[in-house]
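fold-stage: in
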Amino acid sequence: MRRFPALGSVLLCFFLTLLSTGCSRDPNVKKQKYMESGQHYFDQQRYREAAIQFSNAVQVDPKFAQAHYQLGETLLKLQDLNHAFGELSRAVELDNNIFPAHAELANLLIASRQPEALKQAKIHLDLLREKQPNSPETYTAWSNYYFAQNNLPAATQEMQKAIDADPARSDSYLSMALLQTRANLPDQAENNFKKAAEVAPKAMNAQLALGGFYQSRNRFPEAEQQFRKAISTDLKDPAPRAALVRLMMAEGKRTEAETLLKETKAALPNDSEGYRMLGDFYFATGDLDKATAEYGSLFNDHPRDMQVKKNYIQLLILKNRLDEATKLNDPILQASPRDVDSLVYRGQIQLRQGNAGGAVESLQDALRNDPNNAVAHYQLGIAFDQQHEDDRSAAEWHEAVRLKPDLTDAQEALARVQLRRGDTEGLLQTAQQLINSEPPVADGFLLRAVVESSRQRFTDAETDLRKAMELAPASPAPYVQMGAMRLAQKQFGEAEKFYQQALEKDPSSAEGLRGLMAAYIQDKQVDKALAAANEQIAKSPNSSFYDLLGTVLFESKKDTKGAEAALRKAVELDKNNSNALVKLGKVQIAEGAADQALATYQQSIKDNPREVTFYILAGELYEAKNQWDQAKAMYQQALNVQSDNPTASNNLAYLILQQGGNVDLALAMAQTARRGIPDSPNFADTLGWAYYQKGVYQSAINFFKESLRLNEKQGGADDADVHYHLGLAYQKTNQPALARQQFERSLKIKPDSPDAASARKALAELRG
């Protein structure tokens, strides 16, 4: 009898299991459970988990409007704005009465500041004004709209209505404070920043905004006190610690910032953002070695943290550890072929391997999956640039800057194109776009100063540079640019002062030391330039500084021994310092040690197998030794790395022509070289020589004449070889007078050239 109660319990459990299973099959019950779970995670600020649950609810019922709305809100928290916009749009499409979704959509459209987007935002705003006229969200959205149209009074009026509608709403005070900051009303802004923090003492955005306000007013002690208060408010939130680090860096307290980040890593061992901050700090401050080591350690400790893995891959790429990066990146793509970050990484790897065509394909794949990925557009611009497609590269960089105005790499790339083209108007537009972005950044003012300096509008340039100093007080860049401007004005003492200030801001600034040394050299104080280099090396013994020291010793003092020692030290500190390696070889050649230079370049090839420059330099040294096969092998290896490299293509083409090889192959290579560098006199001569060998003499004549024209335009020495080649072409086209003139010119320039005997023989034949 004792067994019956147990059996009854089993049957009851079985019955309950069947009942619960039956309920779980009801889609309405299932989607509500996902919604409740998602809301639970959302309230705990576990937004990734919340997004998964809301997505599950949408999968159960694709027409579940509230789930689309909640998913959109969650994606906003995750800063996934594109997908958030899609979910919010779907929500109002299914239920036009979800008014908070209309407000969020309006704000997203307004943020783009594009005319068409503002028109679409107005549709949502008009609906909100009709249906929810007294809602704080409605007033806030209208305030944002007016602000986007630079109507500050109307924006302020709407925000005051939002405050009146709900005086306990912290965000309204915060927005009002920002508007007052823009209107240069600091006292009123401070009151509202304080009110925002007072109304919501645990709202981290309000706490940090108040600290940020103090920092912007250079009230550093108050800012630090506020940030430390924010840290104590929530010991597990990494945001206030990050804010305090930024303050410390603005004050030049790098050591204190690093110490705080080490403490943060220990205090937040289970928070990805928290334990990544130290590695991100090293990356942001340009210490790639420490950043890579830190992320290597993090990857060992957190192998399943995808953000750690991806950041580590990026650092490995930057350190040219391409095999390791590929080994980590390929499995991600195998599991998720559409993963945008990993497609971009593959493109970067291919770029560094000289495979620009493959990089274009990978990056275009990334953009098909995410058309608004600014980094992918930037990298695609680099790929097109390597293929010498200037218009396409500039277009990609324009798009990258449009999508992400603070992407400084894209801005600088675009600025280089604009400077190279002399497109000061385009550069000015790029600068203005940055200046108009919110909040203002120093880069726009720096770029505009470059334009103003080039136009000799030095007063305007100085105003912009002073503003850049104010916006980025810890950055050496404005001081470097100010030094460059004073140098252009021949105000050497002033230039030296600003370069020294740049080095005070960042003792490892290569641009600062380079400028300071240039100022001393132009002021005919070479010894001071060398002393400055040695002084900075004592403070920050980095590869770039030894490179600069070696350069000046070689070029200004003709001290080859001292230059070699400095450049060897630069290479010892960074075997990937291509500039130092190239110069080291040149110094060795100047010392008469060509074999040693060749050994330097051969070792450089082993250490940097994707750097084509070393193959070319080694090839030229083999040419000088008349070791033609070895020279051709070097040029071919360069082309294996970068198939369209102009110099390798030109040099190999010329050797093939000189040795009676495949003329069609040489012609194709010479054309590649000419496309790559169309203003090279040497490349024009090679292409002309290829046409001569093909028997297309008129084309040969045109290119030989072009070579001479370019050489004269660029101030080069008259080239005996080109005159000899042109004489041969004239001879083949039955123009004896012109041929004789060219042969005579060639012999006058270089009577002992390798072609001199042939030129004399041709002259004798022409004279009969």
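fold-stage: in (second)
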Amino acid sequence: MQRNTALLVVGLFTACLTTLPAETVAEQDARVEALLPQLRKQAIAFRRGFDTPGMALAVVTRDRIYPLTSGVCEAGRVRPIRTTTLFQFASVSKPITATFAAMLVSQGRLSWDDRIRDLLPGFIFADLRPTRMATIRDMLDQRSGLPGSAGEVLEGFGLPQRTILDRMRFVASAKDFREKWNYSNFGVTIGGVAAASVTGQAYPAALRDLFLRPIGMNSATAVYRQFARNPNRASLHVIINGKPVPAFVRPADAQAPSGGVSGNILDLAAFLQLHLNRGVVNGRQVVLPAALDECYRRYTDLGKGVRVGMAPRDIDYYGMCWDITVTPKGTEYINHNGAFSAGARTIVSFRRSDEIGIVVLTNSFLTLLPEATVDLFFQLYDTGRVRAGTLATFRKRARQDGSKTGVDTLFKSLFGLVDTPAIINGHPLSAYAGRYRNDYVGDFDIAEKFDPESGRNALFFKATARRTNVKVQLNPENGQLQARTNEGALFGLEFQNFDGDRFDELVIPNLAEVGWQNLSRVR
């Protein structure tokens, strides 16, 4: 859903595989095992403090995985989280995609500087320069030039991946291409789809057959229906007035390389262990260290700023689908988090200098539980204790983030909308109904239909032939028409140019960033 910098590791290692002395490995294992009881106790307290139904975490070293689970798969139901419980990884899918690409580079099947136009014949951007020059590297280091919301609303409308990628030809990107960092889900999706093309398979199958299964991610998948049909899965929850509500689902097949991977905590731990072992899995070099180093390279300096639980002058960088955070003392953390506003938060974080890390999966939003748990672990690992007020600090930041981004208001709005009356702002429902379109969205149909829930006519929208109609509702606070996708994304509908009988233009403000917010009536 969104990009949230997590925590915290620097100094690029040499390409050779580092090896800890046997006694150091044993000491590290003993150190981790000693802190596990306190980590479990505190993690459970943190989970409850964030009103999150369930979580799974794993501390990972080069040779060991220490999983911990707590809570339930769905609020109000007795289905405990287990190590085999599936979670949606959200944007933690991004470093998985980058590592998959690094594997293909290691095999000589792909180059970071292979051009998208050569890998995906027929794919074009709106502008000539990125069309001619954009590479795998440009997509994965988030300097594609695409605005962050490119493709997002189209996915919410139910358009398939192929159509969304084709519509990128209408989104201007030349101004920011290689000049500005924009966190774009569909930019990474383009890179992942293009990388997988060298295998002759579609991304989900190539990822499964060539990467996930060989490295031990045995339950992971990039196909939503495979996740959804497993009863041992974590439901998504949004936090409303301190209570977790399992309100939405979040299929992410359209952006699979960027946000569509799911699996259990042992799968994600295996992924992290590959990185801690410099690309070696079961004694086999799956990914070359040099290829991994390209992923950790500091492509973009994101600047200094306050990070929860850390000093105010930590510096953030972005590599290829990795955040790199450096503390004033030079400690480098490599991380990536994930979030679905429909109800998931995840993180992977590690320090190469200590060859240790942690992965956390949770089933609620808005929360900073994964970040708080990472901070908790490294405090225990480094000092053996936890700073007083750590949970309170993270909870305060979560409230600030919710207020700043408007997510808390959005959630309240989702559950505060009312059915549309027969007359809206002085106009009958028939004045709004019709087909509107532009090149980016395509056809957007608004129909006046009988609503069995209210017992009267209401407005419904759909943007694809296959998508179930979604009700348009009224926000009683401001009188605006609003609708939400099945994934919980809320967007407004503004109608203009009333000709005495009906409106001729529809404006969707959520599309303003990509420049395609105006749709004209065509029927």
